[in-house]
Here is the input.
Amino acid sequence: FVFAKDRSELFHKANDTLNLVHCYMMANKLHINAGKSCYIEFSKHHAPPPSTDSNHSTDVPELCINGLPLQNVESTKFLGVTIDKNLNWDAHRTKLIKKLATSSGILNRIKDNVPEELHKDLYHTLFESHLTYGITVWGGVSETKLEPLF
Here is the structure.
């Protein structure tokens, strides 16, 4: 994480850090795939959108690795957990709800063709594994946000 009092300082510090990371990677004969890399700008305050007024600059600072710009994203998947810029886990929960709905449909279609003693194993395979993965990170949200999952 890189933090600063204003965006200009933030992007300057972040680019300095990325240059150091790039130098380390090159020294150790490692490679960063800039095409698969992105960044999220977290903030306590909502930043105003870039001005389209001709009197104001519309230059948005860039983060780069080895001269290649990184994409600024609203959310990204990291180690199987979707992180969003507000850290409210809405994007992760939405993807999880879709995944569980798909699993529910599969289970409903095959339940009559699978012995009853395997139903519990299927539940653990198709539901519990997805629900419990990363729950220490995203599971602290309010009960109302968790309701659609259970």
User: Anything to note?
Assistant: Confidence is low (pLDDT under 50) at residues 49-57. The longest helix spans residues 7-27.
